[in-house]
Design goal:
The protein is α+β, with helices and mostly antiparallel strands. Helices cover about 45% and strands about 20% of the residues. A five-stranded mixed beta sheet has the order 2-9-8-4-5. The protein starts with 6 loop residues before the first helix and ends with a strand.
Length: about 600
């Protein structure tokens, strides 16, 4: 036997790997804020519309259910001062629709609305738009609509999210490795178990404290206001985090009992495990397996209850899939970390034949039980990967909704990155399975197995980070729905609003025609046309004609045949056969002798 490899350097490797993971998480945490998940489907009044009279209320409809804050809606007058509104509330029986009452006597001019709500998967979403009463204001005052997100709060909250995911993988995966793979000496795995538990505790507390300023877009100092924590504990995300904290107490008791199983750690001065110990770690009892499974399921549910799975279609199936996906990820990636730690703590010796990393590197009495452990994990990892693939396919379909969203949305592009990383991870895992078979059959390949598992852990960390970013990104299905709904007009989803100026050439003969096409797509459309005079006020004219043409397809003028409906002109039977950039021409006759025309491009979607 040759000279033994330095044990101190070997023991430092897992610590350096853990430090690298934490640094990667820190860098990723500062990369940017997570995208909001609820998309605005429609608004009434809509952005940019001009109303004849002041609305009594504002109504916003989203792509999923939303939670309301005390300051969810802020209304600003044309001069920039804030207007007092009623309390925000949900529409009767509609958790995806929010309303707020406006006071009487708003007056005329351009008003600004700023809104901020919390989507069903716990992420805040905000926006602002304007509408006018009577006529637009000649000049709009600068309005501070409030912060979209405080950068420091967002970075700290995201970092806590990443740490919580990593801690869950380390905690659940290491515990599953000890229970199901039965390492020869589980003593070295006590530190990863303790690190996972404490990191999850710290991350959960940080998320709970930062939740209030994260929702409101305030700085971290707002977390220490008297009402911050009390408000958080009345929301679903706050309750879920509190449940996760409560689950950590029985989890700690379970881990204490788990760490008492099997051989005790080496006494001071011992550099290696004694050969006579071999594989004496007993098989887990049914009670231990059941307790561990229940705790793992309960912890995983606290993520599913505040993630993409908790909103949208097929929520029960999505929740089950999310729980299984998270547990399979933890068993695989956390188990890899546990296996790497076990391999690093196995005594190594060098021989003349050990030049390519494939020769035997430890006594057979030590390699035999280690090979059995590695073989058990190989089978467990294969099962975890199968579950990951099945649940991943379902969650990808549910999140994307269509093939174009795979490349046309940020969610889809991140999903492609994750897919590439998973394929790479599977390739590295194939190498690990090869060396596991060599180790079990001929007690060779220990060093190569260490390197392969280390590479697997590195790629697995990348997969985990991409998965965490993906959980904070607007799903492709919701992004597509929100895009199809914009622009919105007068509370009509998908309507197209176009302003066409005209000039009759006579004094006071200038004005604007506001054309609203609903739904603004191929096929039959309804048209509403309103005329505004030179002062921006509503104007009554004796005749208004609207025609549309599509030059790209050599389609000439299609007369909309507008009818005077008292206050506005309209029709319900304009048929537009093709998508594209249509030219809309409005002709306005203001007297027997004076008329003017104007044209604008109107985009019609499929």
């Amino acid at each position: 036997m040759g000279q033994a490899v330095d044990g101190g350097a070997r023991r430092r490797l897992p610590r350096l790997a853990l430090l690298g993971v934490l640094l990667a998480l820190l860098l990723l945490g500062g990369a940017g804020a997570a995208s909001a998940h609820a998309g605005l489907r429609s608004a009434d009044p809509a952005d940019g519309t001009v109303l004849a009279s002041a609305p009594r209320a504002l109504t916003l409809t989203f792509t999923e259910s939303v939670g309301l804050l005390d300051d969810s809606f802020r209304l600003f007058a044309p001069d920039g001062r804030r207007v007092r509104t009623g309390e925000p509330r949900h529409a009767p029986g509609r958790t995806d629709t929010a309303q707020v009452a406006f006071p009487a006597g708003l007056g005329q001019g351009t008003f600004t609305v700023a809104w901020r709500v919390v989507s069903a998967d716990s992420h805040p979403v905000s926006g602002a738009f304007t509408f006018s009463v009577g006529r637009p204001s000649p000049a709009t005052a600068a309005v501070d609509t409030g912060p979209a997100e405080d950068p420091l709060t967002g970075s700290l909250y995201d970092l806590a999210r990443y740490a919580a995911y990593g801690a869950a993988a380390l905690l659940v995966g290491t515990a599953a490795f000890v229970l199901l793979c039965r390492p020869p000496n589980p003593g070295p795995l006590r530190r990863p178990l303790a690190a996972g538990w404490w990191l999850l505790l710290a991350a959960t507390l940080a998320l709970l404290v930062l939740r209030a300023p994260y929702e409101s877009g305030a700085g971290p100092a707002a977390a220490f206001t008297p009402s911050a924590l009390s408000r958080t504990l009345t929301t679903r995300p706050g309750v879920v985090l509190l449940i996760r904290l409560a689950l950590l107490a029985p989890t700690a008791l379970f881990l204490v009992r788990l760490c008492r199983r099997g051989p005790q750690p080496d006494a001071p001065g011992e550099g290696r495990t004694a050969p006579q110990r071999e594989d004496r770690t007993p098989a887990p009892s049914r009670a231990a397996l059941a307790t561990g499974a229940v705790l793992a399921l309960a912890l995983a549910l606290t993520w599913a209850a505040s993630d993409h799975a908790s909103a949208g279609l097929q929520v029960p199936a999505a929740m089950a899939s999310s729980v299984l996906h998270l547990l399979a990820m933890a068993v695989w990636l956390g188990g890899l970390t546990a296996l790497l730690t076990t391999l690093q703590r196995t005594p190594r010796t060098t021989t003349a034949a050990d030049t390519d990393g494939s020769a035997g590197t430890a006594p057979a009495a030590l390699v035999a039980p280690l090979a059995a452990t590695a073989a058990r994990f190989s089978r467990l990892a294969f099962l975890a990967v199968t579950v990951l693939v099945a649940t991943g396919i379902y969650q990808s379909w549910r999140g994307l909704g269509s093939w174009p969203a795979l490349t046309g949305t940020a969610y889809g592009r991140l999903l492609l990155v994750k897919l590439f990383a998973v394929v790479l991870l599977l390739a590295v895992a194939g190498g690990s399975r090869h060396w596991t078979a060599r180790l079990a059959a001929a007690h060779t390949g220990l060093r190569a197995l260490r390197r392969s598992v280390l590479a697997e852990v590195a790629v697995g960390v990348a997969v985990l980070m991409v998965s965490t970013v993906l959980s904070g990104t607007l799903p492709g299905r919701a992004a597509t729905e929100a895009a199809e709904a914009a622009p919105v007009a007068a509370g009509v989803p998908g309507a197209s609003v176009t302003q066409i100026p005209f000039d009759t050439g006579s004094p006071g003969g200038r004005g604007t025609v506001q054309i609203t096409l609903e739904p603004g797509r191929v096929g039959q459309n309804a048209v509403e046309a309103v005329v505004f005079g030179p002062d921006g006020g509503l104007s009554t004219v004796p005749e208004l004609r609207l025609s549309l043409s599509l030059p790209d397809r050599d389609i000439g003028s299609i007369d909309a045949r507008l009818v005077n409906r008292g206050g506005y002109w309209g029709t319900d039977s304009l048929n537009l056969p093709f998508p594209g950039a249509w030219s809309a021409k409005a002709t306005v006759r203001v007297s027997d002798l004076d008329q003017g025309s104007g044209s604008r491009t109107v985009r019609i979607t499929r």
